Amino acid sequence: MTMTTAEADKILADNFAPWVLDLGLTVQTVAEDHVVLRLPWSQQLAREGGGLSGQALMAAADTATVIAVAAARGTFGPMTTVQQSTTFQRPVTGCDVLIKSVVTKLGRRTAFADITMTDAESGALAAHATTVYALLG
């Protein structure tokens, strides 16, 4: 059974540090192998020159992947990031970002994901990440 957006929002609210919650992420879509989160534009997250900071994008990608892995497993369980590699392709200024995390392999002890971060207005790819997670429970 596919996790609901309300269940995914609860995972977000119950399991992340306050500074991650301050990003304002919301769950848009949940499926068996992926999730889409929205990172709202905030001048507070902008860097010199007005572009959204890479740190905010990387944190959003990491957070989306935790929820995607939980959806793929059917429940939340303890996990930790082992590796994250991010490439930044274009700046995002003045608009929200959609973060889509797709679980590409789910094993008993590890999970792999591919994450795209797109400008919510134009659909243009802003950043791409890959991640590996250790499943602890």
Model description:
- The protein has three helices and six strands; from the N terminus they run ααββαββββ.
- With 137 residues, the chain is of the alpha+beta class.
- Strands 1-2-4-5-6-3 form a six-stranded antiparallel β-sheet.
- Strand 1 and strand 2 form a beta hairpin.
- The longest helix is centred in the middle third of the chain and has 20 residues.
| Large-scale geometry | globular
Residues in helix, %: 25-40%
- Total count of helical runs of at least 4 residues: 3
Distance between the termini: 20 Å
Question: What are the secondary-structure elements, in order, as H or E?
Answer: HHEEHEEEE
**Which strand order does the major sheet show?**
1-2-4-5-6-3
Low-confidence stretches: none
Compute the CA-based radius of gyration: 14 Å
How many E-type strands?
Answer: 6
| Main sheet overview | 6 strands, antiparallel
Class from secondary-structure proportions: alpha+beta
Bin the strand percentage.
35-45%
Overall pLDDT confidence:
96
